[in-house]
Design brief:
Helix content: 55-70%
Shape: globular
Radius of gyration: 20 Å
Structural class: mainly alpha
């Protein structure tokens, strides 16, 4: 391929996938400003590698760059917790069919997870990657993916359903027992 053809195919890829990749970057870092920076770094690196990846899977390649660049940025800025909300225009959870307030709670819950759990949950349950693909993207073992996924989903359940203890159903019957001062034997 000639340089002009490479640039044209790169530009077509970026135009078609930029919004999706930006939402992935946001899900990783929790800030639209940081997501834009992260995406810019990833697209720059993708451009230099484009002749090698154009015939393969460029989206997987750029996701890998996003992950690694985010890890690098995280290490540089130190440990600090960030939470953010998605605006309606860029809400990738909108496809779930959930009401806006439930989507907002879900996204806020994901943002409250520890970094690695958040990454695993986003890749596995938001983007639909399997365990092997997620492990490869993050450079961790499949067992670690499963562990982070399990812990992340359990934490999300606790955040989103604070009335639910694991293994005990929530609902009107339990609320009635609690109002009456009757507790479950395992309490």
């Amino acid at each position: 391929m000639k340089r002009a053809e490479h640039e044209a195919s790169y530009s077509a890829f970026v135009v078609s996938r930029q919004d999706h990749l930006r939402r992935i970057a946001y899900a990783l870092c929790g800030s639209w400003h940081d997501a834009d920076d992260l995406l810019q770094v990833a697209l720059t690196k993708l451009y230099t590698a484009w002749p090698r990846v154009v015939d393969g899977n460029p989206e997987a390649y750029v996701r890998s760059i996003l992950m690694r660049a985010n890890i690098d940025a995280y290490r540089l800025r130190g440990r600090r917790v960030r939470t953010a909300r998605l605006d309606a225009a860029g809400d990738p959870a909108a496809a779930t069919g959930l009401p806006v307030d439930e989507r907002d709670a879900l996204v806020q819950g994901v943002q409250r997870l520890p970094e690695m759990q958040r990454k695993v949950v986003v890749l596995r349950h938001w983007l639909g990657l399997d365990v092997h693909e997620t492990a490869r993207e993050l450079g961790i073992s499949e067992g670690t993916v499963k562990s982070h996924s399990s812990r992340g989903l359990a934490a999300l359940r606790r955040l989103l359903e604070p009335d639910c203890d694991e293994g005990r159903p929530a609902g009107p019957a339990r609320a009635d027992r609690e109002r009456a001062g009757v507790t479950h034997p395992s309490s």
